[in-house]
Amino acid sequence: MWLSHYSRWLSRFQNLHFLSQQSTSQLLSFSFTTATTTTTTTTPSSPSPSPPPIQVALTESAGRGVFATRRISAGDLIHTAKPIVSHPSLSSINSVCYFCLRKITSNSLEFQAHNARFCSQECKENSKVFYDVERRADWSTFDDYCRSQGLKYPLLVKRLACMIISGAVSADSIHILQPASLSPEMILKMEEGFHLLRRALKKADAMDEELTFLNKQWYTSVMARIRINAFRIELAGGLYEDLLSAAAASIEAEVAVGNAVYMLPSFYNHDCDPNAHIIWIDNADARLKTLREVEAGEELRICYIDASMGHNARQTLLAEGFGFRCNCPRCLSGD
Length: 335
Ligand SMILES: C[S@@+](CC[C@H](N)C(=O)[O-])C[C@H]1O[C@@H](n2cnc3c(N)ncnc32)[C@H](O)[C@@H]1O
What we know:
By secondary structure, the chain is of the alpha+beta class. It has 2 domains: 2-80 and 271-304, SET domain (Beta-clip-like, Beta Complex), CATH 2.170.270; 85-260, no CATH class. The chain contains 11 helices and 13 strands. The strands form 4 sheets. Strands 1-2-3-13-10 form a 5-stranded mixed β-sheet, with no helix packed on it. Helix 4 packs across helix 6 and helix 6 crosses helix 8 (216-229). The longest helix has 20 residues, at 184-203. The two termini are 20 Å apart. It binds S-adenosylmethionine (SAM). The site of S-adenosylmethionine has 18 residues, from strand 3, helix 8 and strand 10. S-adenosylmethionine binds at residues 62-65, 178, 228-229, 266-267, 269-271, 322-324, 326-328.
């Protein structure tokens, strides 16, 4: 049984059409921060960490996917990833770092800048890529729009737009990610967010040439990518009081501290019985870990939804939220 399972994966691996060496290394260098299962302290003279044991390649029926390039033991860290863009949920804005989403408690050191709270001087410095532009504008109408309609993705688009204006990233920085297919109704619903974003930046004296990228087509294409690729961040680590309030919040309100888009984690396909998962300990830095032993050539898949739901509920959620019909072995078995 194990042998046939293994040889199925092996033959798949041999036939894989890998992305070019150049595009794969670009993806890896963009996304990962550590590559091995052991923690190493990087000093200026120490060699850079080895790349993670994965390869992005075409799958048979789910577009691109992430494949193991060697055997990985159960529970190992595959790699970590820093967000391309992240944003606290509006309900957490006063209780988490505006850059890394770490919880800020009454005991933690705090670094304030205008209306934002940061957990460290480093986060305050790192936030300049968007905050130097963002703080020039009045976002009250835009935030009200998101709050009243329960929208979180326009906040990520706003942050990305500010990063583009500040010159930190290019306007097409997330265009490599797969977009959702949007119906005309969905595109129509996005118009208000687009106009409010543009208006807020115009009023903040952004120059016309700084805003040339910010047209309806850019806004909807970014929203289409964020819709499929954004992760909702729930922190696993933290204080006992945090765990208690999270337990209460899971009944009453939003437990997520925010949302984020990553590069490499966006290439992991879904499985209702996954062999890998993504977790967050105390900030928005993601950790991709195996849930069981994975062979060289095996595709690494995570679960996008609550796997404890029944077959029909899972299929409906994946079709409506992500636009695909899941044909993972568990779904095919009817479970
Ligand atoms: C986050 S992306 C994963 C990477 C994507 N395959 C790509 O090429 O960029 C999610 C999309 O991948 C495809 N996908 C993921 N898991 C799948 C599955 N189990 N069955 C079919 N398609 C899947 C769907 O098109 C889905 O909308």
